[in-house]
Amino acid sequence: MSENAYANPGIRLRATHHHVDREDEVNLGFWVFLMSDAILFGTVFATYAIMVGATAGGPGPKQLFDIKSVVIQTAALLLSSFTYGMASLSLKHRNGHGRLIAWLVVTLLLALVFLGFEVHDFLAMFAAGGGPDRSGFTSAFFGLVPLHGLHVTTGCIWMVALIVQMARYGIDEDVMLGLQRLGLFWHFLDIVWIAIFSIVYLGGLA
Amino acid sequence: MNELGGHPNWHPHFPGGISGDGDGYRKDLHSHLWGLVLALTLTAVPFALVYWHAMTRSWLLLAIGIFALVQAMVHFRFFLDIHPPHRNVDQLLLVLFSAQILIMMAGGTVWILANLHSRMY
User: Fold this and answer.
1) ipTM of the complex
2) Smallest CA–CA separation between A103 and chain B, in Å?
3) What is the pTM of this model?
4) Reported confidence tier of residue A20, pLDDT bands at 50, 70, 90
5) Nearest to A183 by CA among A103, A98, A70
6) Quick check: A72 contacting B, CB < 8 Å?
7) Angle at B22 between CA B19 and CA B23, to 5 degrees
8) Which end of chain B is more exposed for a tag (fewer CB within 10 A), N or C?
């Protein structure tokens, strides 16, 4: 049996696998969750695609979306994916607690910028008469985009929990596995955001 | 050296024979920086095209779709460090099964409801 036979894709924390160890087991389990989450997002995207024209005489994408705000959100989330990657590298190459925590805090701040602008956009949509109860289009929009925002919020809570865990217990195996899985989750959310800004925002404004 | 590794099972060795700062770190850093530059470019171009309405709507939609797919691949390759020919059968089956369910559910929804929609007129 090749030693790579059970290796999951993603950044490896250890080189050698003599048996199916805990790292592979929990990572495969987390991949099952990510795939089920991808199916959830895919079906909500399908609903949005069906509903996008159903504005019922209310405001449509061109009246409700603010491309500048979406640019800022996209940049913040993309940079946060990069800074989380830097945190993973600090962990992988043992660059020290300080750098690891600094990159995580930067990631957290970028995520908060993203969420701040997103909530601001939602409030602006409410003010423009485009709340979720206005039409099939706005219902589908508020089913899809805040679902992603909720995922990002959950990721932020998880990140704070891991930072607290690190401060309390140091960087033990549990923290390392947690950071590895949060990394998968975080990059996954950025890929979902690519679909959202492409289909919902750019598709709506094109 | 081993300040992060408290657990005895955690070896400070990684693929490429890295332990601490060295070529491996620089290689990973370059990979992430390349990912960042490519992802920023692949994001900026479709936003610019839409902002300035550089082409007709159907061409814009096609361009947006292509840039999104390429960017997703860039994220997989440079940020998640996933390379296509990996040998994990469990993983491959999981991804293929999920993709199949996704295509059936999302594709089926769009197909059936678009068909119903066309009968409304």
Assistant:
1) 0.84
2) 14
3) 0.85
4) low
5) A103
6) no
7) 115
8) C
